[in-house]
Design brief:
The complex is a heterodimer of chains A (75) and B (229). Chain A is an all-alpha fold and 75 residues long. Chain A is built from 2 helices and no strands. Chain B is globular and about 60 Å long. Helices cover 74% and strands 0% of the residues of chain B. Chain B contains 8 helices and no strands. Classes of the chains: A mainly alpha (75), B mainly alpha (229).
């Protein structure tokens, strides 16, 4: 019974913590592409900043992943 | 041999990282042994890589800070890149004494703590005393707890980002390998090659940005900016 509930909790944790950052990353990626095509001469700078922004968002997913692994360890 | 190392308390990640350190050291010694003014061969390749890296960080941190602290961030980048790529070798994580160091949480945690301590040292050195901690209370005093939490969360997020990514990639490759051993893991490994590079870049990039943040308003930095204008 408990393991079943933990399994469901793991699935919900990782899926919800993926949805938010995925939406944000999509927005960052699309607007970075747009700016790059509009102003190709600042491409290098834009790419660095884009990777940085993506890394910050990705950290949120990773927190979810770590919690999911911790829950898996309790099963 | 490996049993002896286990007996003194070393684990797989430590053994792999020690071997990697030795390999990188030997490579660096060979590349820098016979320096010429007109580089050729190996020296040329290594110099090109280092120059590219230097240019990248110079754009980010400015000339003064980059000249002073490029050794730290450059070393972090090369080291994490080698550790991440070592996870692509066959039998990694399965055989004794072989595990990608970054997929063990203690390894990124150690590096993040070193970065945290280094930031304090750099801040005090650049500002010349405890003036470095003025930024914690800079707009008004109530910011102090917020800034402290922000500072302490930095190593934590550095750790989990690197560990979670490497460990997650490794797990996904393993699971794909169990699902369909032929073809499918290779597709994922192409992605892993990319992610490993990005994670190494992100760790050193964030360290560089934190260094820039800590040194903001330092007298020497202001002077360097002034000279530039």
């Amino acid at each position: 019974m408990t393991t079943g509930i933990i399994a469901i909790a793991v699935a919900i944790t990782i899926s919800i913590s993926t949805i938010g950052p995925a939406l944000g990353m999509g927005k960052v990626g699309s607007s970075a592409m747009e700016s790059m095509s509009r102003q190709p001469e600042v491409m290098g700078e834009l790419r660095t900043n884009m990777i940085l922004a993506l890394a910050f968002m990705e950290a949120l997913t990773i927190y979810g992943l770590v919690i999911a692994f911790m829950l898996l360890g309790k099963m | 041999m490996i049993e002896k190392l286990y007996a003194i308390g070393m684990n797989d990640a430590m053994i792999t990282s020690s071997v990697l350190t030795i390999i990188i050291c030997i490579f660096a010694i060979i590349a820098g042994r016979n320096l010429q003014l007109m580089p050729s061969g190996l020296q040329n390749v290594v110099e090109m890589g280092v120059e590219k890296l230097h240019g990248f960080f110079e754009n980010l941190m400015g000339k003064y800070l980059c000249d002073r602290y490029f050794p730290v961030v450059g070393t972090l980048f090369i080291w994490i890149l080698c550790c991440n790529y070592s996870g692509l070798l066959p039998l990694m994580g399965k055989a004794h004494g072989m595990q990608a160091p970054t997929s063990n949480i203690n390894f990124p945690l150690g590096m993040a703590i070193v970065v945290l301590l280094l930031l304090q040292v750099i801040g005090i050195r650049e500002h010349g005393g405890l003036k470095a901690y003025k930024r914690l209370v800079s707009p008004f005093f109530f910011m102090l707890p917020l800034m402290l939490i922000d500072d302490l969360a930095k190593p934590l997020s550095l750790t989990f980002r690197l560990y979670g990514n490497t460990f997650g990639d490794e797990e996904v490759v393993h699971i794909f390998g169990e699902l369909c051993p032929i073809g499918l893991p290779v597709l994922m490994q192409f992605l892993v090659v990319l992610f490993a590079l990005i994670q190494a870049l992100v760790f050193s990039l964030l360290t560089a940005i934190y260094i820039g943040e800590v040194c903001e308003g330092a007298p020497a930095l202001e002077l360097a900016h002034h000279k530039l204008d």
